[in-house]
Structure formats: C-alpha cells, structure tokens
Design a protein that fits this description.
The structure is a single chain. Strands 1-2-4-3-5-6-7-8 form an eight-stranded mixed sheet, with helices on both faces. 32% of the residues lie in helices and 18% in strands. By secondary structure, the chain is of the alpha/beta class. It has ten helices and eight strands. Helix 5 crosses helix 6 (153-163). 46% of the residues are buried.
Amino acid sequence: MKSTLRFLRSLKVIPLVLLGGCSALQVVNSVSKIYTAEVKEDIEFGTHPKLKYDLYLPDNPSDEFNTTPVVVFFYGGSWNRGDKSEYEFVGRRLASMGYITAVPNYRLYPEVQYPDFLKDGAQSIAHLKKELQKPEYQNFKPAQQYVLMGHSAGAYNAAMLALDPRWLNAAGVEHDGSIRGLIGLAGAYNIYPINDRDVQPVFNHPDYPPQSQPIDYAATPNVPSLLLAPQSDTLVSIDRNTNALHQALKAAGNQSKVETVEGTDHVTLIGTLSPILFFKGSTSKPIDEFIRELHQRTQNSKTGPSRS
C-alpha cells in the first residue's frame, strides 16, 4: 500500500482519489483493467488463510509458441506487508502479453521468519503445477518450466527459489525441470548486514542464518536471469544487490543481463507495469523480450529445454 501511494503521489492524483472516495489501489488496479485477462481469484494452496494465489490467463492462447509461458510473480514489502490483491495490475499486464501469470501470497513477519516464506513460495508453485494440469487449462498448453519474477523482497523470494534447488525439491517439485528463468526488479539479493530495523528480525539480526542470500547460489544451477534496476534506489542498493548478483552469475558462467529502467526509483520500477506510469521507462519491453527469447530457445531445442 505504501508503495502504491508513493507513485500515485508522484502523479499528484491523491487529492482526486480522496475526493472520489476511492483507494489508491482501486485506482491503480481499475486503470489496469484495460489489460484484459481471465482472472481466477483465491486459489488455495495451503491450510493457512493467507496461502492463496490469483491466476491471470490470456484472453486467447498465443499460436506463436507450442506452449504458453508461465510466470509466477512475488510481490515485495520487506517480508512484513503486502497482499496479492495489490498487484492485479502486474497480473493483468503479464497476461495481456500472452503469459499465464500466478500471483501468490506468502506468510509475513511477525507471524513467520526466514525461511517460512520461501517454503510458502515453493508450495504455491507445487500447487500451480497440479492446477495447470486440469482439463480447463489445456487449451493454453501451459509450459512445464516457469519463469519466477519478483520485486524487492519478492525478487529475493523468486531468486532463492530459482537459484537454490532445496526449496522446490522439498515441496515435491523437481527443480531443474520446473524453472526456466528468473526476472528480478530492484531485488534484495545480498542484504547482510541489514540496516533496516523492520527487516532485521525477519532474518534474526545479528545472527543471520548461513547461506540465506541469493548471491550465495550464483554458481548453481544455471538459470538465465534478467535483473532490472531503477535509475536510482535509496531503499535497496543497486551496486550491492543487482550488480553484485549479476557479476557473480557471470563469473560462474551463467547467463545474466542487467538493464536500467530510465526515470524510475525503487517503487516506480514496478509501477511502470501499470498504465498510470506510461511516461516512465519500460519494464514490460525487456521482460517480454527475455521471456520470448527463453521460450523460443526451448521450442527450437531438439533435445529438450536448454538451460544455457
């Protein structure tokens, strides 16, 4: 909610929102309905009431590929706030690009600490794998390998699930056959020592759990990555996180690409997926190019999905 308010305030539309009796989130998500999609809400993947995901389906399955790419998006919020309902604009935008998109919830601090939100993320993917096998989705021909995507703390979640096989494997999902790529937006990949007091207890500061950062897993496995950074970021250091992970991935011989989105900061980077920030640099263009390149490479492979 705070993130949404910040980028709406930058447009000076908050007074209009208040006068109209609408919340900031209603404005963002209502405007984003120009991106049409079939939406299935509140699909349960666990017994905890928080553990649900929303599924966004393209209006018409694309005939460009033999299968439809699947994206799982994890929202940010310092692991202590956020809800999938706030990110309808992301689900709709990605679905309008032709991708099946899931936006799962995960449990938050103070109810849980690391690594419970990673277990939740893995559980959501395990459920999605079974969900998309139902007959009602077969006209989409869902891809078997997924692209994991996230913003800020959500990019941490996506990166850990993509780069560290133990979480998906523990959830009964064969990691190497299930992950196609990673997209991180202003991600937190290398945050120790933690200065943010809201985040410190999430990782038991100062007694940080070992091997709990995405950068620790840059060498394996080989998952192609697109790391998007804002032009400036006062919340998550670009050099310490995005650039450091990129260099570690490249040093290990893995495919990684970094792009800076002009005119954005930590919050407006994800906000550019809403039509409200149409005048900022584009995140959708590099995301679309990355996913299509991955999918084309897989489709053209004669020996099965390529991991290079």
